[in-house]
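Task 17 of the worksheet. Students: predict the tertiary structure of the chain below and write it out as structure tokens. Keep your answer in the requested format; marks are given for formatting as well as content.
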Amino acid sequence: MFSLISKTIGFINQSIAAFGITAGVAVAFTNVVARYAFDASLVWATELTIFLFLWSAFFGAAYCFKKDAHIAVTVILDIMPSKIAKIMLLISHTVTIVFLLAIAYYGYEYLFLLIELDERSIDLWDMPMWCVYLVIPVAFFFAAYRVGEKIINIIKTPHHEVVAESEAEQVLAGMGVGSKNNDNEHVKNLNDMVKDVEKKTGGML
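Model answer:
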């Protein structure tokens, strides 16, 4: 059941993020063409573009929690013993999930305020604004679900395996230069250089 829920959330996040950015670009491009080629700007295009990008960004960010694609400074984790690193990861993920659930809850409460005030879009055919702001509780709840999955995985994973490879090491692996494949002196120097750069940049290579 949880596997089905995870796949469903992933599909929703990907679909809305992809559709939002594609449709937003299409609407913005159409408006530019209409304005400069036909001198007939679409009054609703700007607001619709903003809302589409908004939904795309929020659901895209929620999807990034599954892929660990958010920026993370891991320089401290890299120098800590694995047991302490695991505890630190659990604490940071717990703080993250609490924050995400709080935003989701207050975003849900805000919807009722919008419904009560009957706030509506000016340009988008009098559309209720709660439809737009629905993205906040839904996207943040999906993100919290992903972080919950990460917490469970961290708990189940042995402490010596819990710290994933750094982004730079993943890039090297993609080039066929894995950390285990370091017999060649050139590869050793390359790995040392990458680790040195990571220290100087706080792990944000």
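Marker's comment: The first helix runs from residue 2 to 38. Confidence is low (pLDDT under 50) at residues 165-170, 200-205.
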